Amino acid sequence: MKKPKVAFYWCASCGGCEEAVVDLGEEILNVVDLVDIVFWPVALDFKIDDLVNLEEGEITTAFINGAIRTSEQHEIVKLLRRKSKFVIAYGSCSCFGGIPGLANLFSANEIVRRVYLETPSTINPENVIPGRGDKFDGSVVSLPKFYDKVKPLDQAIEVDYYLPGCPPPVKLTLEAIKTLLSDTLPERGSVLAPDVALCNECPRKETKPDKIELRAINRPHQVYIDAEKCLLAQGLLCLGIGTRAGCGAACINGNMPCTGCMGPPGNVKDQGAKLISALASIVSSNDEEEIKRILEQIPDPTGTFYKYFLPYSILQGKIKREIENESLENYD
Amino acid sequence: MYDFEPKIVAFFCNWCTYTAADLAGLSRLQYSPCVRVIRLMCSGRIDPQFILEAFSKGADGVLIGGCHPGDCHYQEGNYKALRRYILLKKILKDFGIEEERLRLEWISASEGDKVQKVVNEMVEIIKKLGPVKPEKIIQLEEQTDKMEI
């Protein structure tokens, strides 16, 4: 019998998701027994032609990690979509935009200018901006287009399943591969992780008080962290209350608060807004000045609550809106 | 500046501010029609997702009306609204939405005149701010940015 074919690809990501695949360890040998890897540019020597030469739908599953930021990434994922039966958005960047998605608080132009002209360590006397068809040795050199916004994978192509995590937990990855090779497929569009909040599987669940009262917000380096007690009750911003379970509470087992990488449970549309709602409501004061003083202790609230989720959130980044039927002359 | 009629979404609590808006109507107090009132049982029911949704769907401002501190029908729903409002305001700036576009007011059932005053004031402020920055203006800015480089 022919083995099912699997492809891996990365877009705007750090490479951690590729590590997560390698982290399967000995289990990867069992996986390789079951499937043929036909495209994995990070680990094995494949070229784009290897992908182009495949039949439409020949790949059983494509695991795509990373968000979509450039036209090159967009083209390859479109190609992968055509060649694959199932596409899995693998990892938080691919599912929600992830940390690269925080760039949506700035325009592409601001980013390029900052990186190539403005940072204190930049030495660029000729003010070269790449990707604008610069001449080099008599020929014109260009780069793929840098999109104005970071997009999660499903804003670029259709996605069948989502496997969040930064990186996705080994256990869930193995389960996903096994599920997809079996006859009983989960409903299309589902997230291949439990649909409950992390607090449900937290080892410190028992120590969570009935009513948590946030009197001060501490950062991990500022306090001695009790390794047994609920982190939120210790005043640390543990985001498990608004984050999907499935990671086995990895950070909490390392005595660090959850940062929300698994994204929200299924009934939440906007993780950041929900976290704001939940955390603000447990601030233990009714006095406006006191509340402000306590909440002032959160450094960079947008970056904290939308760390992995910004391009997938309701506003998707710095707001841009078309005004219908208004011509440009009207704005002066 | 062209003639701009802002859209303001107002979330009013059933027990105080919504009743006050009713009273304003009964007393024939005129206030701007730019406001669209949504009645909720309590200002504590306002999920920050509602507010972001309003902005993403075309609102130029969001007004929250609740009972005065200590007067909440459900003991402390209005305090929860206050805390969420303070925290949400801190992130709106990053999303390119000016602080003045989100406003919280305590208006009791007898303060119909305060509904009139607050709504009219807010419409004036938002008219000065203009619409939430539309895409075309951003594109214009980007063109000028490129010229500088």
Question: Brief overview, please?
Answer:
The complex is a heterodimer of chains A (332) and B (149). Chain A has 332 residues and is an alpha/beta fold.
List keywords for this structure.
heterodimer; A: 332 residues; alpha/beta; Rossmann fold; 2 domains; five-stranded parallel sheet; two-stranded antiparallel sheet; 11 helices; 9 strands; 27% helix; globular; disordered C terminus; B: 149 residues; four-stranded parallel sheet; 4 strands; 45% helix
How would you describe what is shown here?
The complex is a heterodimer of chains A (332) and B (149). By secondary structure, chain A is of the alpha/beta class. Helices cover 27% and strands 13% of the residues of chain A. Chain A has 11 helices and 9 strands. The C terminus of chain A is likely disordered. In chain B, helix 1 packs across helix 4. Chain B has a 4-stranded parallel β-sheet, sandwiched between helices. Chain B is built from 5 helices and 4 strands. In chain B, 45% of the residues lie in helices and 15% in strands. The longest helix of chain B is centred in the last third of the chain and has 18 residues. Chains A and B meet through helix 6, helix 9, helix 10 and helix 11 of A and helix 2, helix 3 and helix 5 of B.
